[in-house]
Each structure stands twice: as structure tokens, then as C-alpha cells.
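Chapter summary example.
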Amino acid sequence: MKFIKNLVSFVFFTALLSATLGTLAWFYAISAPISKEEAEANQENSIALTIPSGTPAGEIGTKLARKGLIRSAYAWKIYTRWLQFKENKAIDYKAGNYQLSAANSLPEIAATMRQGQVKLVDFTIPEGWNIKQMAQYFESSDFFSADEFIAATRKIPQDKYPWLPNNLPHLEGFLYPDTYKISSDRKTPEQVIYAMLDRFEALALPAYQANQQKTNLNLLEWVTLASIVEKESVIGKERPIIAGVFSKRLAIGMRLQADPTVEYGLGIKQTADRPLTYAEVAKASPYNTYVNKGLPPTAIASPGIASLKATLEPQDEGYLYFVARYDGTHVFSKTYSQHLAAMRQIRQQRRANK
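The structure predicted for these 354 residues follows.
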């Protein structure tokens, strides 16, 4: 009898020990391979991993183990099966480009991949940039080529954005200037464009719709005029006044005579030391508002919300003219003689300061 009792005790102890060791082994298998302190010290806090679409869970575990992100591919399989049993459904690990850390546990990495928390890339489009400038920026940032972006802006996605005006030759003016974060595996011209159109739809379009009764401008005209205001304005408080000058000119049938439209049409950029020439100002172009009355056929840049709002609520001070001081501010005039006098004074000041 004593032997049987001893045997039972031994079996129980062995089972308990095995269970304890198994539990410890399991928690070790799913624990982070390295500590957060080690990751920071070794600068190994971020490891890139690409998971193609349709990759089986077992293969994902193998990739993770080879990268040193988990201790055991077998533990990954067991953990995935346990999740399936627990949730009574297939476990979906999202495809994409990930930045993962070996300082995270197996369950933490699994949660990241189930939620599709892929690596993000960011890009910033300043107010007043045009499509050509954006294209050069994306190419220099290794997103895609400038030509690919420009070609994509000529494909108007009215199926996704039915509010876009008809017969647009390109998306100039509707690519909202802002800072963006997108999935690194969606770094294509189309996805970048959709992100910017989404932002326009969320931030700019409601401003127009809320004030549509206050303006006689349609959507394209509004964005086009706002883009000119954007290019002419430097000081925020001057935006509504500049918008007022152009709105007044449009109302009385006077040419806008906006230098940025000439620059856009010719693909050039004037400076204080190299202003536009008389020949350039007189050169025929659909965008030359010295030659043509009214607005140009499209926007000339991406206006920010301040210029868009200023164009909806222009400030009429009776001004018809303004000239830049080259310090960001302008001199506004009501008559042409006052305008000529302001230009002479600014030229004299500039010569005196050289």
C-alpha cells in the first residue's frame, strides 16, 4: 500500500513538474527574444519584414523566426491554432510592409499583423505647390518617378470623386496641401492622389458647400481663383484683401494681370532680380491673365484652406491694384496713378538698398 502511495505521489509530482516546466517553456517561447533595453542599445529596435498577399501563417512564422523577431516558428503555429480555437474562426494576418521589433512578444507581433499595422511613410505638400513641383518632390523622395505622378494626375477619378468638375485636363488645385501618412506598400501615384483628394473632400469641399450661396463661382472657378490668391499672398492678413482685388476685377471685366499665371503658363519663376519681361507678359498663353480676361482654364497651384476661405469671403476695400514690396507685403492702390507711384517708390527703395 505504501508503495502505491509513493508511486501516486511520484506520478503527481512528475505531472506537476512537467506542467510547470511546460508552462515556463511556453511563456519563454512566446516571450520577446530581446529586452527593450537591448534593442535600444544595439539599435535593433526596428526590423523590416514584407509579407506578400496570401502568405500562409506557417510561412509567416518561419520568416519571423529567421529575422529573429520570435523565438520559435513552431510556437507561432501553436499560438495561431490556439487563437483559431479561442475565436472559432480563421486567423487573418494582413499582408504588407512591417517595421517590427524583437523587443515585442510573439502575441504582440501577432496582434500587429492581424490589425495590419504596416509601416507608414509620410510626405508633405506645402501650400502653393503645383503638380510639377509635387512630381519632382516625390521623385527625389524615392516614391516614384515624376513622369508617373504627372501621368496619374491626368486621369480624373470621377467614379470615386463625383464632385470633381467635368472635363478637367488634370487635378491641379484639387490635391490638398498637407502632411500625410500612408502605408508603405501603397506608395503609388494613385494612392497618393487619392489621399490628397480625400483630404480636399474632407476639409475644402465642405467650406465651399457651406458658402456656395455667397459666391457666383463654381467649384473649378473657386479653386482657380484661390490658387492665384495663394501664389500672390505671403502675409495671412492680406489674403482677403488680395482676393477682394481679384474679385472686383472679375466683376467689372478687368483683366486679373496676375504674374503667377504667366509664370505657370510659361513654366518659369521670376525673382526680385529677374522679374518677368515685357515679352513674357505679352506672350500668348491660356494662362496669361495679362492677355486674357477672366480666370485661366485651371488652377495654377494647390491653395491652402486660408486662401480658399478668403476667396469665398473677399474683403472689398475698393482696391484695384497692388504691388509687392519684396518683403512679403504689398502696397494696395485704388487708382492706376497711385499704383504707378507705388511701383516707382518701391523700385527706388530697392536701388537704394543694393
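To summarize the output: Residues 218-353 form one domain.
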